[in-house]
Specification:
Number of helices: 21
Largest sheet: none
Distance between the termini: 27 Å
Radius of gyration: 23 Å
Oligomer: single chain
Number of strands: 0
């Protein structure tokens, strides 16, 4: 049973949900550390062409296996009451679809390798196909763990599998496995995830074939599956297009820029996204108003993410040197464009989890199809013009996706544009104050991001001070979270007051 926290925020977010978020955050931070270390090491072992070829294989495998989301195990999270037949049917459908997808991939692997003029892709896809089937065994168990908000168990499973994946990739790369390093690492991670998931939920009966309730699962998963395929296509297609029309090294460069640009997202937002769907679903099951929770989370996301991604644009050169190495400095201008464009992505974060939690699966799919569908076309078209055009296209695609996301959420969550503007207005003020000195440092350096160590320290310190001052000046709602963590009330200046329902 969840215990509602009573505070001046009117008890919007449950103590149980906060604990779930902390565990999800711990998992994501562990994954980030693993990911950063692997990026740091692999970028110094493998060249851009090798990484580019591996990205092509991983992208194809990811899109293909996402099709199994048509029978998504997340059906088990959203359903109010889950029967053994529901679990068995979900398991049967996921495993069946995974085996079909793996068989198709193995059959067409030689043609894919020929299309990209990369012979090793045949073997790569074969190994990835086996990993995809093994990973399907852990899907239903993982869904049951998240349904019960047992994010501590999920954290241990995902962290362990992430470590094994990273070690597998690095060891294979050191043994001169080339692009196969990523395939062997993926296979090793899938094996560990399968074993640990079964250890956490040793339910052998779930693997007994059953098709009762298939229609309900497909009805739920149809929209989820379509949205997931579109998401993966949106992420992978530009790189798949680049791989065919340009050298593999360009794919590697774009992939590294994308990975570094995604670090703020992973560090700050992945934990929120992981817990958002179960949390919103719990609110809906308990007949609670969801608007306050949505606006408050949007306030948290924007005030954390905006300063971070904009600072990444300022510090792009030193970050690339640290994370990737000096041989990747050509990534810097692409990274700067992508980091600034990411500013517009905030409204998209909660769209899918909140709509699905409310049972609006069709609208969730529509929002994704309209927003990401058109954006995919724009980005793929830009891919033919090179890396810079590809990065610039995100200044069109991301604002469009944000607008579509807000439109669809407002169909089910009755907030006004003024309320959302007030939420974003507070975060914008805090972000502006945090960027004032770093932008001045960059300007004094001739807008050259090749900053010295002293300049980097000044930028980071002033950003933290400016952000903290901004929170106090506008009495941002996130201060209440700090109060809960520290057990002490944090004073604020309240110089700027904006009307909002999340005060």
């Amino acid at each position: 049973m969840l215990i509602r926290h009573q505070s001046s925020a009117k008890g919007i977010i449950d103590v149980g949900i906060r604990k779930a978020y902390l565990m999800a955050a711990l998992e994501q931070y562990c994954q980030i550390v693993i990911s950063v270390l692997m990026i740091f090491v692999i970028s110094r072992i493998l060249g851009s062409s090798t990484i580019g070829a591996a990205v092509i294989g991983l992208g194809i495998g990811t899109i293909a296996f996402t099709i199994r989301e048509l029978a998504t195990s997340e059906f088990l999270i959203q359903r109010a009451n889950v029967s053994t037949d529901d679990i068995r049917t979900a398991t049967t459908l996921i495993l069946g679809l995974s085996m079909i997808i793996a068989a198709v991939l193995c059959t067409i692997a030689p043609q894919i390798a020929g299309f990209y003029r990369e012979p090793q892709l045949t073997r790569f896809i074969h190994v990835i196909s086996v990993a995809g089937v093994l990973d399907a065994f852990s899907g239903p168990a993982s869904a049951l763990i998240r349904r019960d908000m047992q994010f501590g168990i999920a954290t241990r499973i995902n962290t362990a599998s992430g470590i094994v994946y990273a070690l597998g990739v690095v060891v294979a790369a050191l043994l001169d496995a080339g692009i196969m390093s990523f395939a062997w690492g993926t296979l090793a991670g899938a094996v560990v995830r399968m074993m640990l998931s079964f250890h956490a939920r040793p339910l052998l009966w779930m693997f007994r074939p059953c098709l009762r309730g298939t229609r309900a699962i497909i009805a739920f998963g149809g929209y989820k599956g379509a949205s997931s395929v579109l998401d993966r296509a949106y992420e992978a297609l530009p790189q798949l297009v680049l791989g065919h029309i340009m050298p593999m090294s360009n794919v590697g460069l774009f992939n590294r820029a994308n990975l570094v640009c995604g670090l703020p997202d992973k560090f700050l937002l992945s934990a929120i996204f992981a817990v958002a769907f179960p949390a919103f679903s719990a609110e809906v099951r308990n007949n609670r108003e969801i608007k306050p929770s949505y606006l408050r989370l949007m306030a948290y996301i924007s005030v954390l993410y905006w300063p971070t991604t904009l600072m990444l644009g300022v510090l792009a050169h030193p970050v690339v040197l640290l994370a990737l190495g000096s041989e990747w400095v050509s990534v810097v201008p692409i990274l700067q464009l992508m980091a600034v464009a990411a500013f517009f992505s905030v409204p998209c974060i909660l769209t899918f989890p909140i709509l699905v939690a409310l049972g609006a699966n069709r609208h969730a799919c529509e929002a994704n199809f309209v927003g990401r569908g058109l954006s995919t076309v724009i980005i793929c078209a830009a891919s033919f013009q090179g890396l810079t055009a590809l990065a610039l296209s995100q200044f069109i695609s991301l604002p469009f996706q944000a607008y579509i996301s807000i439109l669809y959420v407002r169909k089910h969550v009755p907030f006004t544009w003024a309320e959302l503007g007030a939420v974003f207005g507070r975060s914008a003020i805090a972000s502006a104050l945090s960027l004032t000195v770093p932008l001045a440092v960059l300007a004094l350096n001739g807008f050259d991001s090749r900053l010295s160590i002293i300049q980097v320290i000044v930028c980071c310190t002033s950003c933290a001070v400016g952000w903290s001052l901004g929170l106090l000046v506008i009495a941002h709602p996130i201060l209440e979270e700090f109060t809960l963590l520290t057990g002490r009330s944090i004073p604020h200046l309240s110089i700027v007051r904006l009307r909002t329902s999340v005060k």
